[in-house]
Amino acid sequence: MTGLVTKQSDVYSFGMVLFEVLCSKLCTVTDKDGGFMFDAQTVKDLYTNNKLDEIIDRDLRKQMNMTALRKFSAIAYRCLLDRKDRPLMDVVKNELEETLKIEGEVSKKKLDAETSKSLPGAHRFSLAEINHATDEFAPKNKLTQGGFGGAFRGNISGKEVVVWRMTKEKGPRIQTFYDLLSVCNHVNFISLGYCDEEEEKILVYEQMTHGASLYDCLFRHTNFIPRLSVEQRLEICIGVAKGLSHLHSLTNTIILKPHVKTANVYLDRNLVPKITSFNSFNFDVRPSESSWSLERVYLAPERFIPNYPYSPKVDVYAFGVVLLEVLLEKSLMILPAFIMPGQLHMFVKLNIYGECIRECESVIRLCLEHDPARRPFMNEVVDRLEHALQLQKQWIGGT
């Protein structure tokens, strides 16, 4: 031993780090039973005797492809060899990238194979059906183009649809597609299905040109659109909140920007709410139902800051406005500053229980906080509104 620190010393140290990752243990640490000392010689002996599985993290063994796992282990082992036999870091880097590629390809194949099972509500269209619906993606049918793909007008079985065709570049688009597909299959989002064929990643959304929106039900009462009860209003808002909570849990929330407003929530025959529009892809291509002055009320304060990045808390703010409109039965152009804390019940004409309206008011005020960091997460909103609904039902049942 010379005592000199060399580049190959770094390779050795990195090899120990790789084994720490594999085993979820720190090196030179004895386990709680005193039966295992994690050091370089021990892991090398286990590797050469094909017993490394004894110390590899159990959860990692379940999750990782075996070929990739073996390749990763081999790289780590080679880093611990005698100095002259250790690989250069460039070689280690390249082999780790190859391992990642193997793992990614296998994971995608598993995901592709399980898609139809895990998404029973999402219809799988053939590429031939999509081509027919869009006239082979004719330029005349193109609606918009974004960084991740383009939207096309189409018609399937007499239904007007928007077909979103993802770009064919590799990388993040794959996860984006499956995140979008997850939204596609959620009960509170409008969708028809998808196409995953011949390298194409395509989503199909129904254009809701017919039917009643939440806006219609709140502000356009007719014989065909009866007035909603308090319980129905809360159930609708809970559905919208659940849809947003699901959306915010996805990997690529940053490119999935729902346009939350009452006109973009459609109700099916069972009054189940369906969120219809995404700003970033302009899926809702119908003429705007509101002027810019009406749109502004849904915009969080930070949306008026130039180049301010989108965050889920923008949707939380817009949801707070929707909930307020649902309770006040008013289409708002500005937020009613005249409503003081604890006084919302004075302006609500619905037959609503006091404790219920207080809970709703608390949710609204939190959602409309000026500071995004003080706004709640949508899963918290769901819990509180479900509690408010329970209070209302108990009160109705006891009256």
UniProtKB/TrEMBL annotation:
Superkingdom of the organism of origin: Eukaryota
Protein kinase domain location: 137-390
Tell me which InterPro entries the record gives: ANXUR1/2-like, Kinase-like_dom_sf, Prot_kinase_dom, Ser-Thr/Tyr_kinase_cat_dom
The entry lists its GO molecular-function terms as: ATP binding; transmembrane receptor protein tyrosine kinase activity
This protein's GO CC annotations: plasma membrane; plasmodesma
Q: Tell me the Pfam families matching this sequence.
A: PK_Tyr_Ser-Thr (PF07714)
PROSITE patterns associated with the record: PROTEIN_KINASE_DOM
Q: Which Gene3D superfamilies match?
A: Phosphorylase Kinase, domain 1, Transferase(Phosphotransferase) domain 1
UniProt name for this protein: Protein kinase domain-containing protein
Q: Which organism is it from?
A: Tagetes erecta (African marigold)
